[in-house]
Write a structure and sequence with these properties.
The chain has 3 domains: about 20-195, Thiamin diphosphate (ThDP)-binding fold, Pyr/PP domains (Rossmann fold), CATH 3.40.50; about 210-365, TPP-binding domain (Rossmann fold, 3-Layer(aba) Sandwich); about 380-565, 3-Layer(aba) Sandwich (Rossmann fold), CATH 3.40.50. The strands form 4 sheets. Strands 3-2-4-5-7-6 form a 6-stranded parallel β-sheet, sandwiched between helices. A 6-stranded parallel β-sheet has the order 15-14-16-17-19-18, with helices on both faces. A 5-stranded parallel β-sheet has the order 10-9-11-12-13, sandwiched between helices. It starts with a helix and ends in a 24-residue tail after the last strand. It has about 575 residues and is of the alpha/beta class. It is built from 23 helices and 19 strands. The structure holds adenosine-5'-diphosphate, ligand TZD and magnesium ion. The site of magnesium ion (MG) has 6 residues, from α20. Ligand TZD binds near residues 410, 462 and 492.
Length: about 575
């Protein structure tokens, strides 16, 4: 054979060899690991990736802003225990998504932010590439782990590392940097297939040490006035039956943190939600399950915890969380499912429940508080106050307990959290550890997509504004989301006046704004409701029809208080002119 013929044969063999590329390998790697939904915004270098992913059967939800796509991915992680995936373009898109990645990390939600990036050679020499930025370096301090993949044959390993980092141990946000060149890199299809990794047991059970269980039970046995605090880690863990059994077998009153509401119904006889200040003050042993002693629990000390000496038991997957704010006399390190099961076994069959002095006092306080609130929830004032509006929404959730409640704002958040009882786990999703505004529409979209359940979003008018443009996304995907805007003309209140000039005061918005018309612009249903009766009718109609709906609930601009329930954290100038 001549050299020419030989080389022609080799070329033909080469041409027949099946090839794959970065685009396809990333899609195959995601699908192999059951990551079948992507939340993002298209653009260079990921536009084609989105199209190809959609063609390959991945659900691609295209947003109007990456921050909202990122929040969607973060809550998808919380709801499913699988990392939510957010996809963005380079520099500005990446930065827009980064807030959500940091939020996911702060809240212990598993999420992977995948961003396209510019060429390393140019970025590293700072030669001014299109959307140039050293994204990996910037992401690192804000997430649990950050990786970059430079070669197509490393895509499988890169994604495997990202998945494990996101869901194992304390979950969090992971950044995956994919330079533009990677997408087009070609390799042998067979070798490519072999390079992918099916991640086995990504979040292995972490069994607590038997002595830690014994120690915890000894402390619990010594208690006269025990309390269990359930946090969103407990909701995330999906150990719902074991947690319920622990509460009921131990007979210990429980206090759910905001996103742990519904793990056991708020109407459960042992729920101390409506007796919060009493149980924090008077309890002697507190068992934390998936809740940190951060600002939301006043760091475990100070006035709200009263003078009674306290002992803390803490169940958490993160050993470094122990003693972070106060001494933990019985740390139980492990995953909540394993820890709670071990406690149940250790309790045996004749566990002594707390005396009725304690449980009776808690129940009495709770009934008093509930009774005190009841008449205020039944008012039909127009314009509405928070209690009148929330009274009807409370009934709607009672009648539709599998709906998902999204909630943000200041007064709108604090009062809804206290007033609306939850009946099922992971049905209340809100501003989380940072008290962040802007999660509303991203959370609503992901909740509808991931669970298929109807969503009721109760939004302060300010809070809604942070993600409001996504109503178009909700209409585009025809999601069963009903948004109720508590429109009090501003942040906290709509009554501030600027005494120094003609500009509006910093906390007020356009008076009488009609947010419902935004929804109509995109073909959704818009309603303006001026009384609790009207509000009730409109929400029920929306939940029955499943049509994207926005209800502008007209609230008295003077109804709220500054900073809602956390005014104590708000520094105010002593020199301020009255
Ligand atoms: P909340 O705001 O509801 O009080 P936090 O976000 O402060 O809750 O606390 C959640 C805690 O749950 C974190 O410390 C986290 O490490 C822990 N956690 C999350 N998932 C698990 C799990 N599967 N097992 C044990 N602990 C977990
Ligand atoms: N920006 C971000 C990202 N998060 C925040 N928490 C804030 C700003 C500050 N902030 C709050 O803490 S609540 C709030 C802001 C701007 C809005 C409160 O007004 P609202 O609710 O209309 O949403 P109410 O019912 O009027 O109190
Ligand atoms: Mg407001």
């Amino acid at each position: 054979m001549s050299a020419t013929v030989q080389s022609m044969t080799a070329n033909a063999a080469e041409a027949e060899r099946e090839l794959t590329d970065g685009f396809n390998l990333i899609i195959d790697a995601l699908k192999l690991n059951g990551l079948n939904t992507i939340y993002g915004v298209p653009g260079i270098p990921i536009t084609d990736f989105g199209r190809m992913a959609q063609a390959a059967g991945i659900r691609v939800l295209s947003f109007r802003h990456e921050q909202n796509a990122g929040y969607a991915a973060s809550i998808a992680g919380f709801l499913t225990k699988k990392p939510g995936v957010c996809l963005t373009v380079s520099a500005p898109g990446f930065l827009n998504g980064l807030t959500a990645l940091a939020h996911a990390t702060t809240n212990c939600f598993p999420m992977i932010l995948i961003s396209g990036s510019s060429e390393r050679e140019i970025v590293d020499l700072q030669q001014g590439d299109y959307e140039e930025m050293d994204q990996l370096a910037i992401a690192k301090p804000l997430c649990k782990a950050a990786f970059r993949v430079l070669h197509a044959q490393d895509i499988g390993i890169g994604l495997a590392r990202a998945i494990r980092a996101a869901v194992s141990g304390r979950p969090g946000g992971v950044y995956l940097d994919l330079p533009a060149k990677l997408f087009g890199q070609v390799m042998d299809a067979e070798a490519g297939k072999k390079s992918l990794v099916n991640v086995i047991d990504a979040a292995p059970a972490q069994i607590p040490a038997p002595e830690s269980i014994k120690r915890a039970l000894d402390v619990l046995k010594s208690a006269k006035k025990p309390l269990i605090i359930l946090g969103k880690g407990a909701a995330y863990a999906q150990a719902d039956d074991a947690i319920r059994q622990l509460v009921e077998k131990s007979g210990i009153p429980f206090l759910p943190m905001s996103m742990a509401k519904g793990l056991l119904p708020d109407t459960h006889p042992l729920c101390a939600g409506a007796a919060r200040s009493t149980v924090l003050k008077d309890s002697d042993v507190v068992m934390l399950i998936g809740a940190r002693l951060n600002w939301l629990l006043s760091h475990g000390k100070g006035k709200s915890w009263g003078n009674a000496p306290k002992k803390f038991i803490q169940i958490d997957i993160e050993p470094k969380e122990m003693d972070s704010n106060v001494e933990i006399v019985a740390p139980v390190v492990g995953d909540i499912g394993s820890c709670v099961s071990a406690l149940l076994t250790g309790m045996g069959s004749n566990w002594a429940t707390p005396s009725s002095d304690w449980t009776g006092a808690v129940a009495k306080k709770r009934e008093e508080n509930v009774a005190k609130m009841a008449p205020r929830l039944m008012n039909n004032n127009s314009p509405m106050d928070y209690h009148g509006a929330l009274g009807v929404l409370r009934t709607i959730i009672k009648e539709r307990p599998d709906a998902i409640l999204v909630n943000e704002g200041a007064n709108t958040l604090d009062l809804a959290r206290g007033i609306i009882d939850m009946y099922q786990p992971r049905k209340r999703i809100d501003v989380g550890t940072w008290g962040i505004m802007g999660i509303g529409m991203g959370y609503s979209i992901a909740a509808a997509i991931e669970t298929g359940k109807p969503v009721l979003a109760i939004e302060g008018d300010s809070a809604f504004g942070f993600s409001g443009m996504e109503v178009e996304t909700i209409c585009r995907y025809k999601l069963p989301v009903c948004i109720v805007i508590f429109n009090n003309d501003g942040i906290y209140r709509g009554t501030d006046v600027n005494k120094a000039g003609s500009d509006p005061a910093p906390t007020v918005f356009v008076k009488g704004a009609r947010y419902d018309r935004m929804m109509e612009a995109f073909g959704g249903v818009g309603v303006s409701a001026t009384s609790p009766d009207e509000l009730k009718r409109a929400v029920n109609a929306a939940m029955d029809s499943g049509k994207p709906t926005l209800i502008n609930a007209v609230l008295d601009p003077a109804a709220g208080s500054e900073s809602g329930r956390i005014g104590n954290l708000n520094p105010q100038s002593a020199l301020k002119k009255k």
